[in-house]
Amino acid sequence: MRIKKTLAVIAGVVVIGGLGFVGVKMGYNASQSGDFQAPEPAAMTGKTAIERGKYLALAGDCVACHTAPGGGKPFAGGYGLNTPFGTIYATNITPDKETGIGGWTDQQFINAVRNGKGINGENLYPAMPYNVYAKVSDQDLKDIKAYLNTVPAVHYDGPKTDLPFPYNIRLMMFGWNLLFLNTAPFEADPAQSAEWNRGAYLVEGLGHCTSCHTAKNPLGGDNFGVHLQGGELQGWFAPEITGNIRQGLGDWSNDEIVQYLKTGANARTVASGPMAEAVTNSLQHLSDSDLHAIAVYLKSLPGSKDKSAPLAANSAMANGKALYADNCAACHQNSGEGVRNMVPALKGNNGVQASQPTNILHVLMNGAQGAATLSNPTSADMPEFGWKMTDQQMADASTYIRNAWGNQASAVSKDDVAKARKTQEGAAALHNPAP
């Protein structure tokens, strides 16, 4: 069986590599111009290139991936992204001329960010989301580069990406790009409002929401049929953010979405995990007008079809109810309504009712810390229960929470919990290496 799998992978590499060469022969152009006028709010008028670039770098959350955990210097690289193909390390993007991008021209920077091409012409791995940054305008990228030129230069040559064979063959990216890289610039929809188009530009471009919230196919490309309908990411599940009523944002008001993105909390839920980091590092710094534009755009998107049905009374629900009463109700209340802006409501929670139970298991096992923002500096902690609950107890508690108070979602099994433990232990080992 292992031999067959290896042969299948190698065959896939050959096919993908061959497709890449075919793409080049047929005139595939990864440097299509992004010289267009991006939808821009009035608040950006009159700002300098550096001021605009700082705002845009915050919108793109560049610091998140390009800063090593545990006190790494901002933008100096060293962060390891755990992918199904191995660990990919983000690089130094400070203006250091030897280890950073200090010697890069604007065009070289654009080629890397939007076309996935390194300074020496090497193919970058799409863990750097150039497939979505392709929608960002030349001017916005030049402004980001102008801002990055002003951050403190750090001489740091971090860990190198060294994927196992055959994924270490960067030539494969020719084929990947042919299949999944659309270099067409962003085009405003004349049938939609200026606000909707601004939201679309941010979500589909710099915000790179699809990188987390869209499921990936076996080759690591976006699954086009489930756009922004949720995806697995390093032990978390980025939930659906479309107009779906139950699992998405369809039941949220625009103001509730803005409050959540700005503060990390609203009456419905509290951001945790990677989303809390996105709020802290990026979204809290965006203007209210941009956040409102994002809300307008997201709510307009067609969502997944809700196939869930209420679970009948069974032993898992009964056991889960007892576990919830003993361990959860003190904070989340017996009604599941939580505490506004502090303890997330579980009743009607779209993340709780997601197609995958990943997040609820992650939080139960490891606890969680809400987003810390300027407008909400004190966030509540969720204690961990992984040490206390068995896999079966955690499965029962999760099943109950996903189906109580009118919620509807699939049951959670003991095997689901065991799988989640293994995944999260691997992610923890990557980002908290032994001394």
Structure, briefly:
The protein is mostly helical. Helices cover 40% and strands 4% of the residues.
What share of the residues lie within helices? 40-55%
What structural category characterises the helix and strand content? mainly alpha
Tell me how many strands there are: 6
SSE arrangement, N to C: HHHEEHHHHHHEEHHHHHHEEHH
Average pLDDT for all residues: 85
Count of DSSP-assigned helices: 17
Give the spatial strand order of the biggest sheet.
1-2
The biggest sheet, with number of strands, parallel, antiparallel or mixed sense and barrel status, is: 2 strands, antiparallel
Beta-strand residue fraction: under 5%
Q: Which overall shape is indicated by the principal axes computed on the Cα atoms?
A: globular
Low-confidence runs: 1-31
Count of all domains: 3
* End-to-end distance: 37 Å
Folded structure, characterized:
Its main location: membrane. Residues 48-152, 194-302, 315-405 form the Cytochrome c domain. It is a single chain. This protein has 435 residues and is mainly α. It has three domains: 38-182; 197-300; 315-431, Orthogonal Bundle (Cytochrome Bc1 Complex, Chain D, domain 2). Helix content is 40%, strand content 4%. The chain is built from 17 helices and six strands. It has helices at 2-25, 49-59, 62-65, 106-115, 130-133, 138-148, 172-180, 194-204, 210-213, 254-263, 273-281, 288-300, 315-327, 329-332, 358-366, 391-401, 414-431, and strands at 80-83, 86-89, 231-233, 236-238, 368-369, 381-382. The strands form three sheets. Strands 1-2 form a two-stranded antiparallel sheet. Strands 3-4 form a two-stranded antiparallel sheet. A two-stranded antiparallel ribbon has the order 5-6. A hairpin with a 2-residue loop joins strand 3 and strand 4. Helix 10 crosses helix 12. It is globular and about 65 Å long.
